[in-house]
Design goal:
The relative contact order is 0.18. With 208 residues, the protein is of the alpha+beta class. The strands form four sheets. Strands 1, 2, 5, 6, 13, 14, 15 and 16 form an eight-stranded antiparallel sheet that branches. A four-stranded antiparallel sheet has the order 9-8-7-12, with no helix packed on it. A two-stranded antiparallel sheet has the order 3-4. Helices cover 19% and strands 38% of the residues. It has two domains: 1-37; 39-207, Ribbon (Umud Fragment, subunit A), CATH 2.10.109.10. The protein has two helices and 16 strands.
């Protein structure tokens, strides 16, 4: 067997291997793009969003809720919705770029006050009636954890254009917008849709 024949055989095997593996490589690439642009999951690292989210919860996040982006970039191809008060959102911390999950509680133009862990937006208290541990964001009822107090107060704050205020539902045990400041709306890249797995309970579905 000549050297030329050996080289041709090796080339043929490589070409055959590529043809056979190409569909798998394409599928993996599509899955990677889908995860970065459309849907993904998030593992909750702490108790800052209790009782809504527990440490270790696995959460489905909609990567296209606020727009379809070029994978692995902040470039938006298709505009969709905007972050709204009450959304549980995933974003990059303005402090160190860490991926965080918190609740959007106020958007551009809102006047915010926070006293003993309870919010007032534009002069209206979100917790009303006998149960001061439940806040209402439109039609969405949000349970708070005030077992560790309310954390730092906010005397008065007007949210400027392009910014959001995010807080944890566990107000006394959350490092949130009171510590790292307002979040750029552009840095919010996913909306949490629901919990699909919880330690001790297994698979479940809890819409957010």
């Amino acid at each position: 067997m000549t050297q030329s024949t050996t080289a041709q055989g090796a080339h043929g095997r490589l070409a055959r291997l590529f043809r056979e593996s190409a569909p798998l490589l394409v599928m993996l690439a599509l899955l990677l793009v889908a995860r970065s642009s459309f849907a993904n999951h998030y593992v909750v690292p702490s108790g800052s969003m209790q009782p809504t989210l527990q440490p270790g919860d696995r959460v489905v996040v909609d990567m296209s809720a606020y727009g379809v982006r070029v994978p692995f970039t902040a470039i938006t191809l298709i505009e969709r919705d905007v972050p709204r008060a009450g959304d549980v959102a995933v974003f990059k911390s303005p402090h160190d770029g860490t991926r965080l999950i918190k609740r959007v509680v106020a958007v551009a133009g809102d006047r915010v006050a926070l006293l003993d862990g309870r919010l007032s937006i534009n002069g209206r208290a979100l917790a009303r009636g006998a149960d001061a541990g439940i806040e209402s964001f439109g039609g969405r009822q949000v349970a708070l954890d005030l077992g560790d107090g309310g954390g730092p107060d906010i005397a008065s704050l007007r949210v400027p254009p392009g910014k959001l205020l995010v807080l944890g539902d566990h107000r006394g045990a959350s490092a949130d917008g009171r510590m790292f400041g307002l979040v750029s709306a552009d840095s919010v890249y996913a909306r949490a849709r629901g919990v699909y797995y919880r330690r001790g309970e297994g698979l479940r579905w809890q819409a957010l």
